[in-house]
């Protein structure tokens, strides 16, 4: 029988953070992916609640947490706010589990707090580049902006697309735009910032110096994008971190059966590494 899920909200210097919490034991902090919020983790954390104290916040700009002015979005600010939140709930030793943009934030945080973070488990981490992916957001920027010539053109050509039999294509484009506009924080963090600000927060310079145990989950099967991001991230580390998981990518967070052994291993390694760092 699952333990009861609790919700919380706290006011921080940059806005309020909303989170979900369940269980008792070693603390796991879950940071959600690009097109999600902390509710992404509910199926998994309810299964883990008998062994772990699970916390799943909405990052600033996501879910029920506060929105930020467009120009304030950055990985550094998300990491600082995460630290402020964890201090407020007195989380001293944690393992971070994260996907997508959450993995980018988690890696920055782990690099800044190696004695607090016992380990890091990520999948499809943003913040790294891969030659096979190129600039994969190039065709998305114009759809994500509130105002753009491309979006205006999309509205104008609607009748023509219907006449020439491209109505389904037009419908898919509008659906994609609605998704992007719904997750403005994701767009701001990934591709609607100044290029120099994005480059300054890339992980390639941080990962070789990361001092916490890391596991990069490689679902089987996984999309080409997830495989490329996982490989680019793992290749920057000082040790091999790819961990094949015999579960499809779409179901990897639905069951604790494959994830729990990884958590146990990372937590034990993290305790050993933390003792070495403190010593």
Structural summary, described in words:
- It is built from eleven helices and eight strands.
- With 279 residues, it is α/β, with parallel strands linked by helices.
- The chain has two domains: 6-134 and 195-278, Rossmann fold, CATH 3.40.50; 141-182.
- An eight-stranded mixed sheet has the order 1-2-4-3-5-6-7-8, sandwiched between helices.
- Helix 2 packs across helix 3.
- The longest helix is centred in the last third of the chain and has 20 residues, at 259-278.
- It is globular.
Question: What's the quick description here?
Answer:
With 279 residues, the protein is of the alpha/beta class.
Strands, helices and their partners?
Layout: E1 6-12, E2 15-23, E3 27-31, H1 42-48, E4 53-57, H2 75-88, E5 94-99, H3 101-112, E6 117-123, H4 141-144, H5 149-156, H6 158-163, H7 167-182, H8 184-190, H9 195-200, E7 214-219, H10 224-236, E8 242-245, H11 259-278
Parallel strand pairs: 3-4, 3-5, 5-6, 6-7, 7-8
Antiparallel strand pairs: 1-2, 2-4
Helix pairs in contact: 2-3
Q: Could you tell me the CATH topology label of the largest domain.
A: Rossmann fold
Q: Tell me the CATH superfamily of the largest domain.
A: Alpha/Beta hydrolase fold, catalytic domain
* Unreliable sequence segments: none
Radius of gyration: 19 Å
Name of the CATH class of the largest domain: Alpha Beta
Spatial order of strands in the largest sheet: 1-2-4-3-5-6-7-8
Overall body shape: globular
Count of DSSP E strands?
A: 8
What is the share of helical residues? 40-55%
Rounded mean pLDDT score: 89
| CATH architectural arrangement of the largest domain | 3-Layer(aba) Sandwich
Major β-sheet annotation = 8 strands, mixed
Q: Give the termini distance in whole angstroms.
A: 41 Å
Oligomer classification: single chain
Strand content is: 15-25%
What order do the helices and strands follow? EEEHEHEHEHHHHHHEHEH
Number of discrete helical segments: 11
Domain count: 2
């Amino acid at each position: 029988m699952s333990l009861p899920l609790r919700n919380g909200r706290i006011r921080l210097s940059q806005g309020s953070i909303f989170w979900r919490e369940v269980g008792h034991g070693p603390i796991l902090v879950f940071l959600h992916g690009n097109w999600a919020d902390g509710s992404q983790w509910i199926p998994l954390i309810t299964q883990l609640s008998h062994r772990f104290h699970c916390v799943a916040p909405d990052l600033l700009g996501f879910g029920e947490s506060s929105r930020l002015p467009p120009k304030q979005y950055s990985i550094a600010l998300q990491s600082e706010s995460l630290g402020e939140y964890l201090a407020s709930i007195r989380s001293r030793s944690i393992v971070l589990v994260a996907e997508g943009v959450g993995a980018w934030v988690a890696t920055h945080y782990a690099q800044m707090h190696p004695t607090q973070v016992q380990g890091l488990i990520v999948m499809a981490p943003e913040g790294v580049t891969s030659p096979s992916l190129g600039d994969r957001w190039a065709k998305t920027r114009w759809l994500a902006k509130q105002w753009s010539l491309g979006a205006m053109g999309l509205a104008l050509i609607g009748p023509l697309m219907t006449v020439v039999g491209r109505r389904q294509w037009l419908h898919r484009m509008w659906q994609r735009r609605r998704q992007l506009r719904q997750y403005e924080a994701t767009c701001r963090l990934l591709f609607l910032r100044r290029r120099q600000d994005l480059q300054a927060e890339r992980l390639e310079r941080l990962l070789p110096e990361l001092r916490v145990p890391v596991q990069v989950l490689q679902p089987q099967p996984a999309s080409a994008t997830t495989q490329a991001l996982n490989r680019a991230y793992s290749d920057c580390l000082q040790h091999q971190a790819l961990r094949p998981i015999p579960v499809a990518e779409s179901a990897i967070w639905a069951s604790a059966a494959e994830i729990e052994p990884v958590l146990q291993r990372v937590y034990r390694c993290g305790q050993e590494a933390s003792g070495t760092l403190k010593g």
